[in-house]
Amino acid sequence: MHKAYQSILPCNSRILKERWDRKYYDEHRQKVKEAQPMVDTKAPRTYVHLHLKLKKLQLEEERLATIERDNRILLEKMSQIMRTKGRVDHRNNYVHRSLNREKRQRELLRVTKENQEILKRILAREPEYNHLQWDKEWEENEAFMDNISRYPRDWWDQEQKEKDMRKEEAKKKRQEENKGRKSRTPRERRRTKSREEQNESDEEERKDEVDEVAAAQEKQEEETDGGKDTKGQEKVKETEDEQDKKKEEEKKEEEKTEEEKEEEKEEKKKEVEPETA
Description:
- By secondary structure, the chain is mainly α.
- It is elongated.
- It has 8 helices and no strands.
- Helix 7 (186-223) packs antiparallel against helix 8.
């Protein structure tokens, strides 16, 4: 069933009211369609002179034209040189002339003369310090230092050299002794090694004792006056000499004992040989 038009406002005829409302609505929709915006949202205008730079194109064409012209001229010259022998104009008959040349020469001569005079004065000047006198004074000071010092100069190096010489002499003696001796058995070699180790340990202990004695003597000398330093040095030297003599004697005794033992062994072997025969 057709539904009747229901108007918002009161009216006498619903049919007329419906026609009028529809007309007003259509007019409203037409106005909405034809309405123009208050804000311009269109794209900006494009200017041709900003995108197409005619001046730049003109300069580029001119540059290319000059390059082409230079290349053409160069090619013509190269072709001419290839066709003929070619000529090169390298002569320059221009003479350089300076208006200030004479003045500069006079100034240079003046400066050289002044420098030569200064050099002569420097060479003619005698030195204020006499190096020969310095050498003599230094020698005298070294002599005074040697007299005052407790130990001579380079005493440590001298001791090291002496020790090295002693070691070399001992090695030579051992080599000579080994050459003269016969081949030993492994037991005898072990015994000799043990004896050498014992001797080395004894020498180290003696060195430690000597160092302790020297340190004690140094302390005593420091407590006493400076005039007693020479006496302490003499005592230390005497003790060192005595210890060196003792070491040499002990070495000689050990060598003698080894030789005696070897002789005894040889005698026993000689006694055993006739019995077996």
